[in-house]
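Figure 2 data, in text form.
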Amino acid sequence: FISRCNMVAPSEELNEALKRVIRRLHQSPFPQISNPEGCEKRSSVALILRLRPTYRAQLANAESSGNATAESNPASLDEFLSQPWEGDPEVLFIKRTSRAGDRWSGHTALPGGKRDPTDADDLAAAIRETKEEVGLDLTGKGCFRVGNLPERVVTTAWGRKG
């Protein structure tokens, strides 16, 4: 997913490279991997990119519109990528809660978590978990789904898959 604000590109070369990666992700989705036998758990994460507007771009947007408002969702990837890219690219990370006995306690991670029985698929799990963890609605205005990252079967240190 990508969250977009009105932006001014500090590095045209960096933004063009980012656009190429986004196009590649969108055009070539990765296949879904089935759970190994005996493993019912699935987890999903969201890689969220945004362009943080420069201070100058924020002022220009506020002056031209009277106030800052959320963008509408573009109808296509081409429409999304054709908008002005004015800002610094950022990736959203979270810091996991610190809890005794949790081996991932306090780690930096992408927003996401375990798939619930009510989630239709891995995408629904990532959307729900992101909303719960950071309050960001990935189905809302200003967000555009680009594609999926490669799926992985994770093996724990004890030889279990999950």
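Caption note: The longest helix spans residues 12-27.
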